Automatic annotation (TrEMBL):
Cofactors named for this entry: Mo-bis(molybdopterin guanine dinucleotide); [4Fe-4S] cluster
Organism of origin: Reichenbachiella carrageenanivorans
Domain Molybdopterin oxidoreductase residue range list: 134-571
Keyword Iron: yes
Protein name: FdhF/YdeP family oxidoreductase
Keyword Calcium: no
């Protein structure tokens, strides 16, 4: 047990809040200014511009920000990046360093009192560090000593299942493939990943209904769609270049609907910074219809719309639903019809929080349009009924035959830049047996068949003392996971925790008895093995696999690439392995040849990925083939969620500010929402403030309620905001302490981070 006096949650100090009106317009000149501020602060303007010129170019490296795709052919010479991509790169190319002198000065006990913002700003980690049992200071350790310690510990466990191996979504295909191979050769499927907290509900719902856990659309589809619905997603902040795609759709005559408890800037009006003239003359109004749904009112609104669609279909048979498509491709249509006929329209309208008039407008669009796309993210997946949300979206698309044809389909917009690729590579605690069989054949070992732990089950197992070693390939497990106090205590029970990281974060401070940091190269840096420069590959949100080659001087001469780290870990841990780990590192083409042999869809990988723009992976749903058990797409019946809470309580959604990438806090502003220089805020409707006797900037504490359990997050300021009534918004990771470990999506086990029942108490 780690007995250091560390603080698991960030300090409760306030910065200096300033509130302005929420912005109507996204991007434009303020975004250009913000871009230059971030790069010049971290790396100087000249270096910054050089790096940005390489980002998302076919000869450069993949943006380490989100997973939004790059255009297949035309890349802008001005650069293919957005404000947040620039921030992501500034953050990893920072000139600041976490080195021996830094750790001599600061103990982990002290650092844990820092905010996540300050911890992240400390800089890049320069060499391996070791935190001994009962010590509070990291000390340098050689790579060899570090690998030996980890290898010895892994070999000493009574079962491989006493170790767990987390992955965050920045890991390349090559590193991910080697990592899961190492972990399975070691003998466990304990491969939790950030996806478990993210789009797992999408993967689960889509696999079940359409036979593929990924989205079906391409960028071209968005351009030519007649109706794009953006639901539970904030693209202006989290996928900024998606706005350019929506703009093209609009220009081609498309209609855009957004469904969100907050009217987010961006889906509203967009000014493309790549188009200098427009920056000066105004932008494109993107959104045609905004529906202010109540938090978790999505099943209700989608069902209400389907009831209206059915009514119109019954009035004018054949005019709304695509019967030919349904007959040829779908199962369980009668069950859905029966359910819709039995459902009460008024109940659905009331549960959604949106007026009947507006729902009718939405339904009219669904009725009249034929090429429809739904884009969604965490507002859909992070609910107890997250899988049902996804399945309701699929129901609408299937009724319209809006799948497997141009301009139509599913678009779960993925978060981390390679989170989708990591899953394709086998980072999955529930691997299909086809993957395991292929691994066994290629590498001559017997892979474990029992499923492993996902994120939530890992935390529970750690808490019970069943996990002794925690290894993390990137990410920040402590700050990203729910129920911070519970998770922190669970992590402290481990014997050894190991983090492969670029930058310092809270997971280096809340550790097991012993801890090791293995510092790695970032995306933008040159990866040289045997004097040969290597490249890696990633898969974006639309299933395009692309090359990514860093070309900048590494932050320190003592860094290793993620694949090299995995190879060394594998060699010390598995001395009898028949796998030639060194060969893979000497030339990453060898890793890609293995991938080609094991993972379907990677034929001629090395050749095709060298082509400009990479290649598309096969996608059944895109081609109108549904690889479910019955080879048919499935309609599903999804009940209306009860959403019952105490009438004096609120529903809190834990969301991202404009100045963060998950747990990495770039800055203290949320520019579009008009919140400046403060993160400890709660967005509340002015009518709710009045009813509860609260005033602007009033300091409050939040108490989370789940069954008999309560959790506390203290010291937040109230920001009056036009959010749906009865709903609150606040940033994670500060509010993760309120998200109950047991409150998860059914079937996908994703923490319900967008639905936390809270009461608000004056400080
Ligand atoms: N700059 C930046 N980019 C990022 C990230 C980042 O942190 N910063 N993170 C990356 C990652 S890993 C991910 S997964 C994505 C996340 O991208 P998003 O899912 O856009 O991120 P969130 O801030 O979680 O926002 C969820 C949105 O859903 C809305 N919402 C919440 N609850 C509900 C609901 O019940 N119904 C509906 N209809 N809407 C709801 C919120 O108001 C908000 O607009 O972004 C990726 N890109
Ligand atoms: N309450 C609440 N909690 C949430 C969410 C929410 O909406 N609400 N969203 C969830 C979602 S969608 C996600 S995806 C998770 C994110 O969970 P994670 O992926 O675990 O978290 P990140 O903050 O993205 O990880 C950042 C760290 O990754 C390391 N890193 C950065 N680049 C690299 C690299 O190239 N290689 C390596 N090895 N390390 C690198 C750095 O050390 C950095 O500190 O959080 C989840 N948590
Ligand atoms: S949209 Fe996403 S991938 Fe594209 S530049 Fe911005 S952060 Fe990077
Ligand atoms: Mo995510």
């Amino acid at each position: 047990m780690n007995t250091r006096k560390v603080s698991i949650v960030p300090p409760e100090e306030f910065a200096k809040l300033k509130i302005t009106n929420p912005k109507e317009i996204a991007v434009g000149i303020p975004a250009v200014i913000s871009t230059f501020q971030h790069i010049s602060e971290e790396m100087g303007v000249i270096d910054g511009l050089k790096v940005l010129q390489k980002m998302n170019q076919t000869s450069g490296f993949d943006c380490p920000g989100c997973a939004w795709p790059d255009p297949d052919h035309h890349r802008s010479k001005l650069g293919e990046y957005c404000e947040n991509g620039a921030k992501a790169i500034a953050e990893e190319a920072t000139k600041k360093r976490v080195d021996t002198a830094f750790f001599e000065q600061h103990s982990v006990e002290e650092l844990s009192q820092w905010s996540d913002y300050l911890i992240g700003k400390a800089g890049r980690i320069t060499e391996p560090f070791y935190l001994a049992k009962d010590s509070s200071y990291y000390v340098p350790i050689t790579w060899k000593e570090a690998f030996d310690k980890i290898g010895d510990k892994l070999q000493s466990l009574s079962s491989p299942d006493e170790a767990t191996f987390y992955t965050s979504g920045r890991t390349s295909n090559e590193a991910a493939f080697m990592y899961q191979l190492f972990v399975r050769e070691y003998g466990t499927n304990n491969l939790p990943d950030c996806s478990n907290m993210c789009h797992e509900s999408s993967g689960t719902g889509l696999s079940k209904t359409l036979g593929i856990g990924k989205g079906s659309v391409t960028l071209e589809d968005i351009y030519e769609s007649e109706l794009v619905i953006v639901i539970g997603q904030n693209p202006g902040t989290n996928h900024p270049r998606m706005l350019a795609a929506l703009e093209k759709c609009k220009k081609n005559g498309g209609t855009i609907v957004s469904i969100n408890p907050i009217k987010e800037a961006g889906t509203n009006v967009f000014v493309d910074p790549q188009n200098p003239l427009k920056v000066l003359t105004g932008g494109t109004a993107l959104e045609d219809l905004y529906l202010q749904v109540r938090i978790n009112g999505d099943v209700a609104i989608l069902k209400a719309a389907m009831i209206l669609m059915l009514k119109a279909e019954e009035d004018r048979p054949g005019s709304v639903f695509d019967h030919a498509f349904i007959e040829k491709n779908c199962e369980d249509y009668p069950a859905l019809l029966r359910h819709l006929r039995e459902s009460d329209f008024g109940t659905c309208v009331r549960a959604s929080g949106v007026s009947e008039e507006e729902i009718r407008k939405f339904a009219d669009l669904l009725i009249s349009k034929k090429k429809i796309i739904f884009c969604w993210a965490m507002g859909i997946t992070q609910h107890e009924n997250g899988v049902h949300n996804v399945q309701e979206i699929v129901n609408i698309l299937l009724l319209k035959g809006s799948i497997g044809k141009p301009g139509a389909g599913t678009c779960p917009v993925r978060g981390h830049s390679n989170v989708q690729g990591d899953r394709t590579m086998g980072i999955w605690e529930k691997p299909p047996s086809s993957l395991l069989d292929a691994l066994d054949k290629r590498f001559q070992f017997k892979s474990p068949r029992a499923h492993g732990h996902d994120v939530v089950d890992t935390i529970k197992a750690m808490n019970k003392g069943e996990i002794k070693v925690f290894v993390s390939m990137g990410g920040n497990f402590i700050s990203a996971t729910p129920d911070s106090e519970f998770t922190g205590e669970a992590m402290k029970k481990c014997d050894l925790t190991v983090q492969v990281s670029t930058k310092l974060n809270r997971s280096h401070l809340i550790t097991g008895e012993e801890a090791i940091i293995l510092p790695c190269l970032s995306r933008s840096e040159t990866d040289k093995q045997n004097d040969n420069v290597q490249f890696v590959t990633t898969e974006n949100s639309m299933g395009v696999v692309q090359k990514s080659q860093g070309s900048f001087e590494p932050a320190s001469a003592d860094l290793k690439s993620e694949p090299a780290i995995i190879a060394e870990l594998a060699k010390v841990t598995l001395p009898d392995s028949k796998t030639n780990w060194d060969e893979m590192i000497s030339d990453y083409d060898v890793i890609r040849n293995h991938i080609e042999a094991v993972i379907p869809g990677f034929g001629a990988y090395n050749e095709r990925v060298r082509a400009k723009g990479g290649f598309y992976l096969p996608n059944g749903a895109r081609d109108g083939e549904f690889n479910t058990a019955s080879q048919q797409a499935l309609f599903t019946v999804n009940p209306l969620p009860k959403n019952e809470i105490d009438p004096n309580h609120f529903i809190l959604m834990t969301i991202r500010s404009h100045d963060q990438f998950n747990t990495t806090i770039y800055g203290m502003h949320d520019r579009y929402r008009g919140i400046h220089n403060e993160r400890r805020v709660v967005l509340m409707h002015p009518d709710d403030m009045k009813a509860h006797g609260l005033v602007k900037e009033q300091v409050i504490h939040l108490t989370g309620h789940y069954g008999d359990e309560t959790r506390e997050a203290r010291h937040f300021k109230i920001v009056p905001y036009p959010i749906a009534k009865g709903c609150l918004g606040a940033y994670f990771p500060e509010t993760n302490v309120l998200v109950p470990i047991h409150h998860v999506a059914k079937e996908s086990n994703t923490p319900a981070s967008k639905f936390v029942e809270v009461s608000v108490n004056k400080a």
